[in-house]
Amino acid sequence: MADKVSFELVSPDRLLMSVDADAVAMPGMEGDFGVLPGHAPLISALRAGVIEVEGAGGDSPDRVYIAGGFAEVAADRLVVLAEEAVVVADMDRADLEARIQEANGELEAADEGEERRLAEGKISVLQEMLGAAR
Question: 62 — phi, psi (to 5°)?
Answer without folding.
Answer: -75, 135
